[in-house]
Specification:
Keywords: Signal. This is DUF885 family protein. It comes from Massilia frigida. Pfam families: DUF885. This protein has a domain of 132 residues. Helix 16 crosses helix 20 and helix 19 packs across helix 23. With 602 residues, the protein is mainly alpha-helical. The chain is built from 25 helices and three strands. Strands 1-3-2 form a three-stranded mixed beta sheet.
């Protein structure tokens, strides 16, 4: 999963909405000039930049995660009701100004920018009256944990200069106000019946308890001081250490105690015992909006559930073929469970052994990818292990390079216990999270001369759909020649199909948490602990996991359409270039783009 999409489940998930393809393709009513105008483009570019700046200042931590480090000294109060209302007022003004422009007076690239901006603004405004603010934290995503993970300096917020140390310190001074607002929001949620499921609260409580420390020097937020560069002057070292101690001991530590205590003593007893979003006030409509938003389609939860069941059956048919090649003779449905019990597929003893395999694979891919891609990012890709604090709940993920080139894109490997780290899925995982998956898409976004709002935003259906499609390229590169590696690919594909079933099952069809856990164990061979953590992820991020498979199916469909229409004229590297060259798009816009390419080359 792309890291910024993971952290911004609340805000980044709202950065897209849903509209039929015809509506996206049509110009606003009354705009009929048809004359390309440099002035119209200039006005659109100015509006797009204003919009991006408003979003980045509203949620500066999200800006950091997306590679924009200009606001690394701010947290913002995007969860504050008054601030949220002011931001929605800005969005309304931006949308009205956008509609005042003559779309037909724009060139094709600018029309795409217009359509995507309209898409995002409509999406943000469509959630304005839903109680998102009452759920400011969960076990997958919270500002206190995000800021704590920045403390190492290895993540999205760099810590190598005195200025950067002061920026992080400034965030520590602002964190108590954010925490108190989060508590207030959750209290309001308790009052009106909008709370997290109890199981999710049980999972997140230990995270916040770990953030509490008796004194500053023991706090994770003090980590930068323990790691200060030797090049800092003695005066700077002393001043920074004093500043960090004061910020943590005087205000941050008491706020963290308040948060942990509130969650344990007040929020946990009030947490709902139901599973799905449909149990919340306005929950059915709320979930349907999230489904449409995350898939950028008009598919209903029921349709997606049926697609998921169909894909599960198809992949199980593939299991029947690959299983005997691995020495398995039982029923296809039980192949994942059998693989999970085989010690030979858990060969690791140390974290380093795991990361070394990924580095060897990365080196091999660098020799194979040029045959499939002519458009590749200039930014390097680094491979690192996930910080200890977030390993228990994190999944392997990718984080974007810094826009100024000071930080590479990073594939983060999450190894909680190397002796239990399975080897069969490593190839397909790296194709997804590393290259040519997220790295080729996210890093390229920063090199395509796109407006900032498009460089630093996106939608799950394209972002994760591309990464899941990228996994399938392993077969063409000969990376799945070993049956266990092909099984790993199928098993990861099965996970994305299962997500369609359990997400819609829990949030639209009345499934319980326990039903989802059992279904995942039966179809994926997961141990109870893994099935539980995956299920609880979908419980707090409703709809987020749907974009993967829906997006990949659409990209595969478009490739097959192009191959059938163009025959010998079809060029796979060119197809990949067409998909990637305009950055992240709603699926309807991507489909229109591919259709135009086909028509032009027939």
């Amino acid at each position: 999963m792309h890291k910024s999409l993971a952290r911004t489940a609340l805000w980044a998930a709202l950065a897209v909405t849903f509209a039929p393809a015809a509506a996206l393709a049509a110009p606003p009513a009354g705009k009929v000039s048809g004359v390309v105008s440099a002035q119209a483009k200039k006005q659109l570019d100015a509006l797009a930049l204003e919009y991006y700046e408003a979003v980045a200042r509203f949620d500066p931590v999200d800006a950091t995660d997306r590679g924009d480090n200009r606001f690394d000294d701010q947290i913002g109060l995007s969860i504050g009701p008054k601030e949220h209302a002011r931001q929605n007022a800005h969005y309304n003004v931006f949308l009205n100004r956008l509609h005042a422009l003559d779309r037909r007076a724009l060139d094709l690239r600018s029309q795409t920018n217009y359509d995507v901006l309209e898409f995002e603004l409509n999406g943000l405004l469509s959630f304005a009256n839903l109680p998102e603010l009452m759920l400011p934290v969960n076990q997958m995503d919270s500002i206190p944990v995000t800021i704590a993970n920045y403390a190492s300096g290895d993540g999205a917020q760099p810590l190598t200069t005195v200025k950067q140390y002061k920026a992080y310190l400034n965030r520590l001074t602002q964190l108590p106000a954010w925490i108190d607002q989060a508590i207030a929001n959750m209290r309001e949620g308790m009052r009106v019946g909008v709370t997290l499921p109890r199981a999710a609260v049980v999972s997140m409580l230990p995270q916040f308890q770990k953030l509490v420390s008796a004194k500053a020097e023991e706090s994770i937020y003090y980590t930068p001081i323990r790691n200060m560069p030797a090049s800092f002057s003695a005066a700077d070292k002393a001043a920074l250490a004093a500043g960090y101690r004061k910020a943590i001991d005087a205000r941050l530590a008491p706020a963290l105690v308040r948060l942990a205590s509130f969650i344990e003593k007040d929020y946990l007893p009030a947490a709902r015992t139901s599973t799905g979003w449909s149990a919340l006030p306005e929950g059915k409509e709320w979930y349907e909006k999230r489904v449409a938003l995350q898939t950028t389609t008009s598919l209903t939860p029921e349709q997606i559930h049926a697609i998921g069941l169909k894909e599960v059956a198809r992949i199980q048919g593939e299991y029947a073929v690959v299983g005997p090649k691995m020495g398995y003779t039982g029923p296809a449905v039980a192949l994942p469970g059998w693989v999970a019990q085989q010690d030979k597929y858990k060969p690791f003893k140390t974290d380093q052994e795991v990361i070394d395999v990924y580095r060897k694979l990365d080196a091999l891919l660098r020799t194979k990818l040029p045959a499939l891609f002519t458009l590749m990012p200039k930014a390097p890709l680094d491979l690192r292990l996930e910080p200890e604090l977030s390993r228990a709940t994190a999944s392997d993920h990718y984080s974007a390079p810094a826009i100024d080139g000071s930080r590479p894109g990073v594939f983060w490997s999450v190894v909680t216990d190397p002796t239990q780290y399975g080897s069969t899925g490593m190839v397909t995982l790296f194709l997804h999270e590393g290259q040519p998956g997220h790295h080729f898409h996210i890093a390229l976004l920063q090199e395509l001369n796109l407006p900032k709002f498009r460089q630093f935003s996106g939608n799950t259906a394209y972002t994760e759909g591309w990464a899941l499609y990228a996994e399938t390229l392993g077969k063409e590169m000969g990376l799945f020649d070993k049956p266990e590696d092909y099984f790993g690919h199928l098993n990861d594909e099965m996970l994305r199909a299962v997500r369609l079933v359990v997400d819609t099952g829990m949030h639209a069809k009345g499934w319980t948490r326990e039903q989802s856990i059992q279904y995942m164990r039966d179809t994926l061979g997961y141990p109870e602990s893994t099935a539980r953590s995956e299920t609880e992820r979908y419980m707090v991020w409703p709809g987020q996991a749907l974009g993967y498979k829906i997006g990949a199916l659409k990209i595969t469909e478009l490739r097959q359409r192009a191959q059938a229409a163009l025959g010998d004229k079809f060029n796979l590297p060119k197809f990949h270039e067409i998909v990637l060259e305009d950055g992240t798009l709603p699926l309807s816009l991507l489909e229109g783009k591919i259709n135009r390419w086909i028509e032009k080359n027939q």
